[in-house]
Amino acid sequence: MNKRFSRIALVGKVEDARVADSMVALARHLRSRGLVVLVDRDIAVADLPGDTERRPMDMIAGDADLIVAIGGDGTMLFAAQLAIGRDIPLLGINRGRLGFLTDVSPDDMLESFDSVLQGRYEADARSLLEVRLVGTRGPDAVRRALNDVVVQRHESGRMVELETWIGGQFVNRHGGDGLVIASSTGSTAYALSCGGPIIHPSLDALVIAPISPHTLSDRPIVIGRNSRVEVRLVERSGTRAQVTCDGMLLGDLDASSNLVIEPAAGSVTLLHPPGYDYFRLLRSKLHWGRSARSGRVEP
Question: What is the CATH number of the domain that holds 75?
């Protein structure tokens, strides 16, 4: 992919003043270059250029050829849902905390964006998961996810029991707070906090990570992306589990339903400025390579 962009949608939680400030600065910068800027019609941000075009959020991606997520990784995942099924790349401006997906810093925002507008960027295609909640009481709930699928206990204070099946073969019974099934992209998100490994995004792999497992031997496992994963609720557990995809609710898993995760068709393309280095990003976010004495990053 090496295309020029003329219609750019800006997405972010403008209740955060830092996000609003970056959105205004970027909108002015883009308009000064004669580009069309689109935002959600319902946001209330002062000082946006008067000719900024407003659209309903569910229509904004259809009118744009680039989506810019301003915020944290949660905002980037929201923007990814807008882009799925469309050939629209994403660029992330980090106004959150860690920001593994939103890798452009506010200080470098305008310079980095000029590079992208000039066609100098790295296109990074990320694979997707297809998630289906298959029940007997109605139509299947289906969604595609970039990061992860999380199955968590519905009632606080009670352990949930889940079974995992991979390729039709029984794997394990998990007692605890739930499971995270993450793509390589999502391996640095919730799965990482559950003790899962970091998987380079170029690898076609999934990680299944238990959340607060009751049994210490219940450890994360890595499998091929093309695997079909099924999660079932143990009927006698007497509870329900809630399923979310990239932080968005899909539905409830109970004894009458199955959760199925498979590779999805298509991908989401992330754009990085020239010189993008995944390992440098990890060093920055996870504070790797720092000298215990000086605090400096060792080469």
Answer: 3.40.50.10330
Phi and psi dihedrals of 72, rounded to 5? -105, -170
Residues 156 and 46 in one domain: no
Q: Which CATH number fits the domain that encloses residue 219?
A: 2.60.200.30
State the SS3 of 12-56.
ECCCCHHHHHHHHHHHHHHHHCCCEEEEECCCCCCCCCCCCEEEC
Place of tokens 């310079």: 111
77/201 same-domain check: no
Distance of CA 58 to the CA centre of its chain: 18
Instruction: Convert the pLDDT of each residue in 189-224 to its tens digit.
Output: 999 999 999 999 999 999 999 999 999 899 999 999
pTM of this structure = 0.91
- Residues marked as catalytic: 73
Q: Give residue 110's region: left, alpha or beta (phi > 0; psi -120 to 50).
A: alpha
Burial of 136 (C-beta count, 10 Å sphere; 0-12/13-18/19+): exposed
Residues 256, 282, single domain; the answer is no
In three-state form (DSSP H/G/I as H, E/B as E, the rest C), the secondary structure along 103-123 is CECHHHHHHHHHHHHCCCCEE
Q: Which of 208, 131, 98 is nearest to 162 (CA)?
A: 208
